[in-house]
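For reproducibility, we list the full input for the fe (iii) ion complex.
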Amino acid sequence: MTRIASHRGGTLEFGDSTPQGFAATAKMPLEEVEFDVHPTADGAIMVHHDATLDGTTDRSGAIAAMSEAEIRTAIINYGAGGHPISLDELCALYADSSVDFRCEIKPGVDGRPYENFVPRVVETLQSHGMLGRTIFSSFMVESQDALSAATGRPKLWLVSPPVLRQLGTKAVIEVAKAHNIPEIGVHVDTADSALMAEVIAAGLDFGCWAAHSARQIEKVLALGVKVFTTDRPSLAIAVRNRLHAEVTQ
Ligand code: FE
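The corresponding predicted structure, in tokenized form, follows.
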């Protein structure tokens, strides 16, 4: 069965990386919650998509330059008044959930990986007993290497449309193999059965990201990808249930 990952806790249903979205996703009949992590200036790890607060909250500033307390005063846009939460809080929310973690390692405002950040993320997940329930993702090959050095947990490489276009499928597969990456994820609109077949024939797992509309969700389910992320987790569950019912009738 194709796995559903609620992207940032279901951005189009609950706002971007909101406590409400993460709490709701924890109770949904799906497999993964996707989230992004950034370090604060005072040693905390926050769950937020962007490296700054500018685009998604009522505050501005780079997360890595602010304290956890400052960041927590921000109100997330369209998020029912919710504020950014820490990785510690997210772990507590999912302690009793059947939904597993899909943790994305993000770059800082300069587009570069944060210094010595991956081991701290791994350590925090471990301390909450969540590491064994976590799959990692990143667009950055350097962060894939950092993940390999820090943990034996599964990981996947997010391959953007320009990277896929510029490298080509064969070179993408070569890079994945050279860096011990067992799985790639592509934007849903760049996925097709030929690409998926080529990736799987090379011994890699294949998934998609950004399947937000019913049409995109139906597409990834028809392809039978391993996993996809979606900003509309409730819609994805409904579509998967409907297609499953049609098949079993
Ligand atoms: Fe992400």
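Residues 34, 36, 104 surround fe (iii) ion (CB under 6 Å). The chain is about 40% helix and 20% strand. Both points were considered when choosing residues for closer inspection.
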